[in-house]
Amino acid sequence: MTGPSSTPRGEHTPAPGITWTHRLVRREQLADNDAPDPTPPNRETRRALARAARRKK
């Protein structure tokens, strides 16, 4: 196993004609406040809801 090099590597230059293109994409969705949560509840939450429903009966 070797240790860290004392000479740092230089920056990699891209091949000619290749450039990075950055596009800022904003994907924002407005949700109704009264709408249910789009993600399903996890196992613990499902079990807690089932226990609460059984106790109500």
Tell me the layout of helices and strands:
Elements: H1 43-56
Short précis:
The chain is mostly helical and 57 residues long. It is 25% helix and 0% strand.
What's the story with the biggest beta sheet?
A: none
Sheet-strand content, in percent, reads under 5%
Structural class: mainly alpha
Distance between the termini: 67 Å
| Mean pLDDT figure | 79
Descriptive notes:
- By secondary structure, the chain is an all-alpha fold.
- The protein is 25% helix and 0% strand.
Identify the notable features of this structure and list them briefly.
57 residues, mainly alpha, 1 helix, 25% helix, elongated
